Amino acid sequence: MVETVKHHDFVEVEYTGKLIDGMVFDTTNESVSKINNFHNPQMPYKPAVVCVGENQILRGLDEALEGKEIGKEYTVTISAEKAFGKSDIQKLRIVPMSNFKEHKVQPKLGLQIDVDGEIGAISRVSGGRVIVNFNHPLAGKKVVYTFKINKKVTDAKEQVVSFLNMVLKIKEEAIKIEVKNERAVVGLPGNFPPPFTEMLSKKLLEITSLKELEFETPSQSQ
Fold first, then answer.
1. What's the pLDDT at 219?
2. Residue 131: other Cβ atoms inside 10 A
3. What gap in Å lies between CA 169 and CA 181, rounded to an integer?
4. Which domains does the chain have, with CATH numbers?
5. Please, which pLDDT band fits residue 220 given cuts at 50, 70 and 90?
6. How far apart are CA 201 and CA 92, in angstroms?
7. Taking Cα atoms as reference points, which of 63, 79, 64, 74 lies closest to residue 143?
8. What would you report as the CA-atom Rg of the chain, rounded to the nearest whole angstrom?
9. What's residue 173's pLDDT?
10. Which of 14, 18, 15 is nearest to 36 (CA)?
């Protein structure tokens, strides 16, 4: 019997993303990253566990997962709007040269800078002004993804840990969780405001088989 993916299924998926010209820019496969010269030793290269329909990966790739067969390889072309967005002229900003001199930075084309917590790249240096582009580097480009869904993930503990890892960017080993009789107690590093953990709890109860979920603060778990 053919097994297909439904909305809010948790799945383990491996993928590789390319530009239309064939340049690889994204992958879950470490050997592919090395072959294409963009390997990052800080990246944990492995298949991703995602909840379908929750936009934990590119919108276009997320939408492509629904209805697909487990174990079959697919290729999908994703529009700019459903990839990294259209190039927005409003995200081009003029930064005075004096700002760079103040911080002892020599502005050069392509240099990435942080302005009020937002990362941009210098696209033009002219006289006393510097134009910084805050669009994503791949904004306005179609991309092509090849992907394979290895399996559905049905274990509630793995579902919760993978979801929190994706949403909060916390390492999986730092998330403590106990599951018993459809009830989970989750310990996170650091303190999060109650309205935020309540929102997370509501979402997790919606997309998993759990009936109860409680977050513990570090002080409560000691």
1. 56
2. 15
3. 28
4. 1-85+138-153 (3.10.50.40), 89-133 (2.40.10.330), 155-222 (3.30.70.2210)
5. low
6. 38
7. 79
8. 21
9. 92
10. 18
Residue 215: phi, psi to the nearest 5?
Answer: -100, 135
Q: How far apart are CA 142 and CA 158, in angstroms?
A: 33
Range 187-204 average pLDDT:
93
pLDDT of residue 35: 96
Q: Are 156 and 184 in contact (CB under 8 A)?
A: yes
What CA–CA distance (Å, rounded) separates 68 from 70? 7
Q: Give the Cα separation of 140 and 78 in Å (integer).
A: 11
SS (H, E, C) the chain: CCCECCCCCEEEEEEEEEECCCCEEEECCHHHHHHCCCCCCCCCCCCEEEECCCCCCCHHHHHHHCCCECCCEEEEEECHHHCCCCCCHHHEEEEEHHHHHHCCCCCCCCCEEEECCEEEEEEEEECCEEEEECCCCCCCCCEEEEEEEEEECCCHHHHHHHHHHHHHCCCHHHCEEEEECCEEEEECCCCCCHHHHHHHHHHHHHHCCCCEEEEECHHHHC
Mean pLDDT of the chain: 93
Looking at residue 119, its amino acid is I
Q: How far apart are CA 174 and CA 124, in angstroms?
A: 42
Q: Which two structure tokens, joined as six digits, stand for 211?
A: 């009936």
Backbone φ and ψ of 2, nearest 5°: -75, 130
Q: Cα–Cα distance between 14 and 44 in angstroms, integer? A: 13
Sort strands 143-152 and 73-78 into parallel, antiparallel or unpaired.
Answer: antiparallel
